[in-house]
Amino acid sequence: MTERSAALVPAAESAVVPWRQSVKGGTIDDRRLAEVTVSIPAHISGISLSVPPGVAAECDEAIRAIASLDATHGPQLRPLATMLLRAESIASSKIEHETASVEDYVRAVHGVRSNSSARSMVRATGALDRLVSGPLDLDTMIDAHRRLMCDDPVDGPYAGRWRDMQNWIGGSDHSPRGAIYVPPPPDRVAGLMADLVVFAARDDIAVIPQAAIAHAQLEAIHPFTDGNGRIGRALAAAVVRRRGIARSVTVPVASALAARRSAYFRALNDFHAGDAEPIISVVATSSTVAAEESKVTAGRLAELPDDWRDRVKPSRGSAAESLLEKLAAEPVVTTEDVEDDLGLSVATTHRVIDRLRGAGIIRPLTQRTRNQVWGVGDILDELADLDVRIAARAREQ
Question: Which part of the chain is the Fido domain (predicted)?
Answer without folding.
Answer: 136-285
